[in-house]
Amino acid sequence: GLEVLRAQYNEIDAKGVKALLAAAKGLERLRRVELNGNKFPEDDEGVEGLRLLLEERKEKAGSGVAGEEEWGMDELSDLEEESEEEDEDEEDEEDEEEKEEEEEQEAKRETVLRDADEQEVQTVAQKKDKDVDDLADALGRTHVA
Q1: What whole-number distance in Å separates Cα of residue 23 and Cα of residue 21?
Q2: Which of 18, 40, 92, 125 could in theory staple to 14 by disulfide, Cβ–Cβ 3.0 to 4.6 A?
Q3: What is the pLDDT along the chain (145 residues), one digit of tens a residue?
């Protein structure tokens, strides 16, 4: 059976940790869970439940079964906790970036249109081309019956 679960940096939230705790109770050989880098607070009740469950299993197994670092949970030093305020700040930043991008695109459009207008009014000298003149003369002599 499963002994070590490595689920680091998988965007697991508090709800996911609770589901993991419920599943871990049925995984009797599970002795280590690594969840660093996910999206839940370190003091979450699901995390505490997992810690207690794994500690109890370690005590039951006694010493000498596996190394100390092979039991329990990894260090949760890199968790992402997103508050509503951070979410709003991110949305504001995204809105600003979108607005700036739209302004840049509008400025580019205006530049292209202005350049096109300027080029349209410029007088262009007609280039003389003997092949074109010959073709025009030949077409001028043809008649459709």
Answers
A1: 5
A2: 40
A3: 888 898 888 888 999 999 999 999 998 889 999 998 888 888 889 999 999 999 998 888 776 555 666 788 877 776 676 555 566 677 778 888 899 999 999 999 999 999 888 888 877 666 677 887 888 888 888 877 6
